Amino acid sequence: MTDAAHAAQKVERSDALDHVARAGLVAYGVVHLLIAFIAGRLALGDRSGSADSTGALKELAAQPFGSVLVWAVAVGLLMLVLWRVVELVGGDGALDRVKSAGRAVVYAVLSYSAIRVALSGGGGGGGGNTEETMTARLLALPVGRWIVAAVGVGILVFAVVLVWRGISRKHAKELATEGRTGSAGRAYVALGAVGHVAKGVAFGVVGGLVVHAGLTHDADSSGGLDQALLEVLQQPFGPVLLLAVAVGIGCFAAFCFARARHLSR
């Protein structure tokens, strides 16, 4: 074992990292709670706001002391990045390292979005749909359509994993023992199950849109979470389905808060 890995394992077992992880999970939960709120509002007919992480952060920035709150979320998400980096360096298995690296990237992207929103005072970060712009750039490459389709498949795999974690209740391992016993513990696990499935469904639609964009060479048909939820809204019984997804994502937020309280690393 290298000195860096040994030092990382010492940090990983420290109480200080527990506090870092708990603060980060609260920030992560806040982002999902805001997405759930905007998605629910969208289901009820209010199309103001974007039901993705950036839109959620802009919604937060528009509140009293919003900039301070967004900065707090950004710092919390950076703490999640730190937590996963420590796991990455100190991890024993290759699979665990890959998982930690992937999660660190996700949290870093969210933190970057929060910092941009905070610096802009909650205003727009430029025109155009970011996902469509990125897709268009990839499609311009010689094998771009296949790259885009592969990214879409990757998102679909991620969605399936989320649904599987919810159905199999693997997420229960992320709660300390005292958080898994009794009626409260069962409620926490149930919230996580519903939340993981709902989030998986939402990202499944995102992945499908990206795959379709690659196969049809049409960047306009791609999109992020906001576009995916609008796609759900356009289906038969769309408002009801979208409201169910919004409630599910809210459950995921509640699970994040429960996990912050009963953290098992």
Automatic annotation (TrEMBL):
The keyword Disulfide bond does not apply. It comes from Nocardioides massiliensis. Keywords: Membrane, Transmembrane, Transmembrane helix. InterPro entries: DUF1206. This is DUF1206 domain-containing protein. The chain crosses the membrane at residues 20-44, 64-83, 104-126, 146-167, 188-215, 235-258. Residues 23-87, 99-168, 194-261 form the DUF1206 domain. It holds the Pfam family DUF1206.
